[in-house]
Amino acid sequence: MNQPHSTDTLLAHEGRAHGQPGSPVNPPVYRQSTLLFHGTDALDAVRGTPLAYGRHGSPTTRALEKALARLEGAHAALLTPSGLSAITTALLAVLNPGDHLLMADSVYDPTRSFCDETLARLGIETTYYDPSIGAGIASLMRQNTRAVFTESPGSLTFEVQDIPAICRIAHQHDAVVLLDNTWGTPLNFRSFSHGVDVSIHAATKYIAGHSDVLMGVILITEALAQKVTRCYRQLGMTVSGDDAYLALRGLRTLSVRLERHQRNAHVLTEWLARQPEVAQILYPARPGDAGHALWQRDFTGACGLFGLVLHPQPDDAVRALLDGMTCFGMGYSWGGFESLIIPSNPSRHRTATPWLAAGPLLRIHAGLEHPDDMIADLDAGFARMRAAAAALAEA
Q1: Residue 261 pLDDT > 60, yes or no?
Q2: Residue 289 annotated in active site
Q3: How does DSSP assign 223-271, residue by residue?
Q4: Tens digit of pLDDT for each residue in 176-233?
C-alpha cells in the first residue's frame, strides 16, 4: 500500500502480500534456522545480509516489522524477545563507556536496574530526572550526555512528559531521545512526529494483545538505523515466526481493542472517583489529571491502564479488597483482553522525585469485559475493605 490510508486500513492491510493470485490473507509462519542456497555464487551473494541465516528474521517477522514501522512512521523496526530486551538493546546501541544518560525517574523498574547495574559496570553514568521537567532538562545536560530516556506516561505513576520540549533540548546538545511508548501505542502517540529518535514498545502488551506472546520492538529513524541494527545483530536478538504471526494477528484488531479499553477505563474511573476511599485517580485522559493538558495536546487516544491512590488503609484491609476479586486477575503486565489489578509501591524505586501519596497505590488495567461486571467486582472489593478496616479498628 503506497498511498496514504487511515490507520484502521493500514492495520488491516500492512504486512500482507497484495496482488499475488492465490496468496493467503495472513502471511504464512516461517520456522527456520538454516537456509539453503543453490551454489556458491548464491551463498556469497547473501553473506553478511539478513537473508543468510534464520536468526536474522523471516518473511513472517519482516511482515510484522514492516507493518509496525509504517504505523508509527519509523524508518525501520526490529523485533526482540521482550520489551525489556528492546530497551536494553537500544540503550547499548546509542551509549559508550564514559557517556552520560538522563533517565526518567518514573521508569519501569527493570530498566532502572539495567542502568544501575549493567550500564554502571560499563562506565556509563545515569542521572534520574523528574518526569515533569520538560524544557528544564536543559539544566541537567552535560558535555557527555548522549541520550535521554523517556517513558510517557510512566507505567506506575502515569506522569505525561513534554516530549517535544525534551527532544528540542536534547537535540541541541547532540543527544538522542528514546521513548518507551507502550502506553501510547503506535496509534495514540506518533513518536517520530514529536521528535523522538528511538521508540520502544513491549509488544507483549497491546500490540499482541492476548497475554500469550513475549516480544519487544525497536522503531528507529534512518539516522540511527545502521548503529542500532548492528548492535541488535551482535546481541543475537531474534523472535520466532510463530510469535511474530501471533503479534501480527493481534495487530489487526489493535484499534478496536484500544477503543474498548479506553471506554471501559473511562467508566471505571468515573465510578471510582465517587468512592470515599479514593484519594486520587492517575489517568491522563481524565480531566483534572496533572498530565491531562499534555495528553490532550500530544495524544490521539488512551488505553485501559491507570492508577488508583486510596486514602490510608490498613494493609490487611487492602489485601481483603484484592484477594477476593473474580473479574479482575492479579498478575504483572497488562494490555491483554483481561482486567488486572495489582498493588504497587513507587517509593521503593524513586530517587529524583519522592512518591508522596499517603495511601496505597493500585494499578488497574481495564480489560474487555463488560464494565458493569468490573464495577460489581470492584464494589464487592471495596465492601470487603470497609468490613476489614472496621473489624481491625474494633480489635
Answers
A1: yes
A2: no
A3: HHHHHHHHHHHHTT----HHHHHHHHHHHTTHHHHHHHHHHHHHHHHHH
A4: 999 999 999 999 999 999 999 999 999 999 999 999 999 999 999 999 999 999 999 9
Pair 238, 274 in one domain: no
Collapsing DSSP to helix, strand or coil, 192 comes out as: helix
130/247 same-domain check: yes
Q: 293 with 347, same domain?
A: yes
Q: Looking at the whole model, is its pTM more than 0.85?
A: yes
55 is catalytic: yes
Which domain does 226 fall in, by range?
7-251
Query: Does some domain include residue 163?
Result: yes
Cell of 98: 564514559
Known catalytic residue at 350: no
Q: Is 227 designated active site?
A: no
The three cell numbers locating residue 351: 530517587
Task: Please check whether residues 295 and 246 belong to one and the same domain.
Answer: no
Active-site choice (30, 108, 128, 283): 108
Q: Indicate the number of domains in the chain.
A: 2
> CATH code at 82?
3.40.640.10
Choosing from 146, 205, 252, 363, the catalytic residue is 205
Annotated catalytic residue within 47, 55, 142, 297: 55
